[in-house]
Amino acid sequence: MRPLTFRRFGALTLALGPLLAATACGQGGDGAATASVDIAPAAAAERLDGVCPSTVVVQLQWQPQSDMGALFEMLGPGYRVDSSDKSVTGPLVAGGRDTGVDLTLKAGGPAIGFQSVPSQMYADDSVDLGLVHSDQLIAASGTQRVVGVTPLLKYSPAMLMWNPEAHPGLSLDSLAGSGATVLVSKDQFYPDWLVAKGLVKKKQLDTGYDGNPARFVGDPEVVQQGFANSEPYTYEKETPAWGKKVGFQLLKDAGYDIYASNLTVRADRMEKLAPCLKKLVPIVQKAGADYIASPKATNGTIVDVVSQDSSYSPYSQGEADYSAAYLKDEGLIAEEADGSLGTYDMKRVDSFVDELAPVIREKGSAVPAGLKPGDVFTDVYTDHSVGIG
Q1: Which end of the chain has a smaller Cβ tally under 10 Å, C or N?
Q2: Buried residues in 80-95 as b, exposed as e (16+ CB within 10 A)
Q3: pTM of the model
Q4: What is the band of 18 on the pLDDT scale with cuts at 50, 70, 90?
Q5: Which of 260, 278, 271 is nearest to 342 (CA)?
Q6: Residue span of the signal peptide, if any (predicted)?
Q7: What residues does each domain of the chain span?
Q8: What is the dihedral of CA 350, 353, 354, 359, to 10 degrees?
Q9: The pLDDT value given to residue 38
Q10: With the CA atoms of 54, 55, 56 and 57 taken in that order, what torsion angle do they form, in degrees rounded to the nearest 10?
Q11: CATH fold of 16-155+258-376, please?
């Protein structure tokens, strides 16, 4: 997950064996049209034609990767990668069956000039839905309000990492006392929260992170931002200049308790899209359950899609599989207390909105003073009977 940050630079090794098996699913070359593939039709309850746009367009936070697995689980065979549009389009499937509409997944980050997803949703009227982390969703609530309708991740894999030899026993609780430089990108909100909580001193922050591993590799004292479903694997397995384990801790363990990768809709379009969302959101939930139960094939699709666009950073089958396993094993994709997946615990939402709104407002975002959690999150479209088991 890399919203408003940069992926690592440098040569990485691509796992070609699984990739070759995956390419049978894709259709190389540019163009949005999908190949003609016979797919069994979905049941009437999951048919989206007539209630959803003929092509449901979703703006991603970054290039395709496994923490977006639920959406790629919904991308049927015959998909085509459009490298000029930085997108992939294919049949939108529910449990492998045709819903009657197509799905377009558009890359974010450098593909949209590093704009936030809410900004892009308001700039590009072709976008129906977007993936937005909860803190960014709060930040956009003033002038570009979007509403979360289902989270792909129960918790964020955002972390801080360090050289365990230089910082033995380091944790987020001891970070302020360590005096270590904390290297982050300037557009994140959690560094300000860490300062507000006294976990980091403001003078420790360095907002010059650009995704290049050279600073971390060359400076054993630096603590760096990252994502626990990615960098621990890529630094050990795919960054030869490092080639060993990193120490790290999830921000959620320090109390940064947000839902991540929320599927959102523009507030001014929610009423119009409500009939679509009522049928689509449970399909997304079920896709998330199917993905985390058996991610291998969908990870192969993600790796294949990335391989077809040379502007993307390489994404190996090894990283994708590590990521999916980490998200499941560490409970970042997990059921709520009632056994449902992809739903909101609105008491938890109330808590983090109340806590983060002042911090994000202080950073300069136009968060309305009277913002209510229900203004930016809703659980009305989710199906609480959907679970992993």
Answers
A1: C
A2: bbbbeebbbbbbbbbe
A3: 0.91
A4: very low
A5: 260
A6: 1-26
A7: 16-155+258-376, 158-254
A8: 170
A9: 86
A10: -150
A11: D-Maltodextrin-Binding Protein; domain 2 (3.40.190)
